[in-house]
Amino acid sequence: MRYKKIASKKLYFLMNKAVGTVCSTVSDSHPTVYDVFPKDFLISKEGAKLHTIGRLDSDSAGLLLFTNDGKLSNYLTRPENCIEKTYFVCLKKNVLSGAQKIYAEAALKGLTLPPDKKAEQECSAPAKINWLTEDSCNITLTEGKFHEVKRIFLALGNEVVYLKRISMAGLRLDGSLKSGEYRSLTPEEIELLYNGFNS
User: pLDDT by residue (tens digit) across 71-103?
Assistant: First the structure.
């Protein structure tokens, strides 16, 4: 399926999600990511609801995609499709160069993730860590287990203190968007998300 065939009926947005917002339509304790959208965007004439493609925790920020295109959303979130997602991470403890190599090699092999609330102990798929400083890095995943980035670094003996998604499926966060702002995707960006997807 190509974007040009569905453009008149479908919506696609990119948001720079703010810390403290939740990816649900209703919340008693936090503002939701849907609060900034006009009400007539939240459901189309065809009855398809605007929803996030994947989620980010309330204390996480960065790239968040919205659509009412259920087929594309399903494709981008199915683990077997190995859609890459990259996060910028700040860590509680500094990691020196020797330990950085150990972290990267362990993540690339896959780790045993500790249990976390509704998630039991489980194994992660290989992840790529690219170090920026002694306490910050980019990490790229191809799955979306519950709190996966945080649990990867817990398994390595460290703790995430800041997490921001900077890319997904080849689409990068728009640096011109302020925290909490969103914009429509361009036709070229929508085509990029459809790359490899056959309806």
Answer: 999 999 998 999 999 999 999 999 999 999 999
* Backbone region of residue 195 per phi and psi (left: phi > 0; alpha: psi in -120 to 50; beta: other values): beta
Report how far residue 176's alpha carbon sits from residue 196's, in angstroms, rounded to the nearest whole number.
Answer: 28
> Of the listed 35, 40, 57, 69, which one is catalytic?
57
Longest alpha-carbon distance in the chain: 57
Nearest CA to 140 among 90, 177, 89?
89
Task: Report how far apart, in Å, the C-alpha atoms of 5 and of each of 14, 19, 75 are.
Answer: 21, 35, 18
pTM attached to this predicted model? 0.90
35 counts as catalytic? no
